Amino acid sequence: MTTKDFEKSILALTLWQHHDKGMDVMIALGNTLFNQTKVWNKSWAQVLGGMTPTQYPDVRDPLFQHLLRKVDDIHGGGAQDLSNGALYFADPEDLATISKQQIITVCARVGGYTFYR
User: Fold this and answer.
1) Confidence label for 87 from pLDDT (cuts 50, 70 and 90)
2) Is 73 exposed, middle or buried (0-12, 13-18, 19+ CB in 10 A)?
3) Could you tell me which of 63, 78, 50, 60 has the C-alpha nearest to residue 18?
4) What is the spatial distance between Cα 45 and Cα 54, in angstroms, rounded to a whole number?
5) Do residues 93 and 84 touch, judged by C-beta distance below 8 A?
6) What is the pTM of this model?
7) CB 27 within 8 A of CB 70
8) Quick one: CA torsion of 39, 52, 22, 26, rounded to 10 degrees?
9) Which of 27, 28, 57, 72 is disulfide-compatible with 64, CB 3.0–4.6 A?
10) Dist CA 86 CA 45 (whole Å)
11) CA 43 to CA 34: how far, in whole Å?
């Protein structure tokens, strides 16, 4: 497995953790992580390194297989950015504890998540 294949697999696994939120949320999360690699000049490994999966899909799971294909576009920077350039995201429960001073711009709201920078 190449480094690029490993990164894409980890990205798909990270996105799959949010499978109950819907495809648009998963793609917007992937877009946000991609934006972090670009803006902060970090590798995928650096951006994804702090995310520890709590669940693991069956690799034959059709949703996980679909995410692996979607991740190609996100990882390569060719996917439509559903986060509209966001660098951070929060679900409604977390958003209540985030200071308004930390949110400079709300970029998008997708499936209950707020994407901001």
Assistant:
1) very high
2) middle
3) 63
4) 18
5) no
6) 0.83
7) yes
8) 20
9) 57
10) 19
11) 9
